[in-house]
Design goal:
alpha+beta; Nucleoside Triphosphate Pyrophosphohydrolase; about 140 residues; 9-stranded mixed beta sheet; single chain; 2 helices
């Protein structure tokens, strides 16, 4: 196995509707397979990070959201041979229902109360929920 020494930047977003957060379960082919997570993906070269989160939600989940608001950032070095700097935002649902494309990274979508979240949660998402409660904005996470 060739080790990828590239640090990747990702943008994710908690989407809220009627006080509940939308989460999907990551499929097994991706890192964190089986974990529940918010939507997101890689930031493209020269792209605004908040706009990347909004774009990823529209592309992967087919949902429209309002303007993302910064929540926290994690230096995530947890999964095998992967290093991400993960930005998490919050936004409100505007329209659409989760409808990932067939080769998508998510399945089993649901709207969850913050005090009744599914398990297991994707590593960086755990920090996002901590940030919602504590207002902590920066996290270090290593395997």
């Amino acid at each position: 196995m060739v080790k990828d020494n590239t640090i990747k930047v990702s943008a994710a977003c908690f989407i809220f509707k009627n006080g509940k957060v939308l989460l999907g379960q990551r499929v097994s082919k991706s890192h964190g397979g089986g974990d529940y997570s918010c939507g997101g993906g890689h930031v493209e070269f020269m792209e605004d990070i908040a706009e990347a989160a909004k774009r990823e939600i529209a592309e992967e989940w087919r949902i429209a959201i309002d303007e993302p608001q910064f929540l926290c950032v994690t230096n995530l070095r947890k999964y095998t041979d992967k290093h991400y700097v993960e930005f998490i935002f919050t936004a409100n649902w505007v329209s659409g229902e989760p409808d990932p494309f067939p080769e998508g990274e998510f399945a089993n979508f649901g709207w969850y109360d913050l005090d009744r979240l599914p398990s297991p949660l994707f590593a960086g998402v755990v920090n996002g929920f901590t940030a919602l409660k504590t207002r902590q904005r920066y996290f270090e996470m290593q395997a």
